[in-house]
What we know:
- The protein has two domains: 8-99 and 276-302, no CATH class; 118-269, no CATH class.
- The protein is built from 15 helices and no strands.
- It has helices at residues 8-12, 16-35, 41-58, 68-86, 104-108, 118-144, 148-159, 164-170, 176-197, 204-213, 222-228, 236-243, 249-261, 265-275, 284-302.
Amino acid sequence: xxxxxxxxxxxxxxxxxxxxxxxREYCGRLLAYVGRRIHDVQAREDVxxxxxxxxxxxxxxxDPTYTxxxxxxxxxxxxxxxxxxxxxxxxxxxxxxxxxxxxxxxxAAVEETPSRIVRGADLAARARRLLGELLKDWVQETWAQGxxxxxxxxxxLFCGGWRNKDTWERFELRDETAVAGIxxxxxxxxxxxxxxxxxxxxxxxxxxxxxxxGETTLDxxxxxxxxxxxxxxxARHWIARHVTGNLDEGPRKFLEFxxxxxxxxxxxxxxxxxxxxxxxASLEPMIERVHASTLQYLRSRTVR
Length: 304
């Protein structure tokens, strides 16, 4: 199984066929995500329709820094919050509902206050982008090396905010110093990677603070970046292999940790969607209705 990604240029040209495939590929996992927060069936479909219509309207400003799935889930997250706010089920807590998903639209819409110095804002944006790239590179390198315990430890520390004591006991390490050693080596490797990507060293002080303390003076932290950019989320085909029991011990243990202990909402939605693949046919009527809601907008953009 391979992970399908849409042709962004075709989507930006408002090609109906490409958008229809998007709906067929992503409706199941988006619906699973919404279903964890909204129990009313009709309301779920409404949020799904709003999500896809929002995706169509915003595709012209798509940021290739993120994957298309991140783009969709970000919009879906925002629309879910909007619905819950309207129903007065949650208020401020929804801003940080535990899944770390502020949404791609929100990230793109942040406005700097007049008091922000331009260079400082630019540095923060560059540092945020660089840190995400570094963490992803580190995760991929560690996965390729088969060091899944190391990967779980760092995810627990950097993303989950676990204490050293909880971490060494969970992974049956020697003691807290073993956890500190894993963290030290990870930070050292991240610094090496940072020097390659940032030879002038402008961002190293901020990144060093972020990886050591979890916070910087640039208004972001490691956990925020880790969750927003889905640093350790495996590709969908790995989750499919997990569903079928076709994983070696290392990847399997990591997937179980990532899904069940870190409770990644994106991957849980993919898991639920893949686990119900035999029910995919039952989604067809809903997909047709959802597509009908976007078709008029697509035609309005293509017909002159």
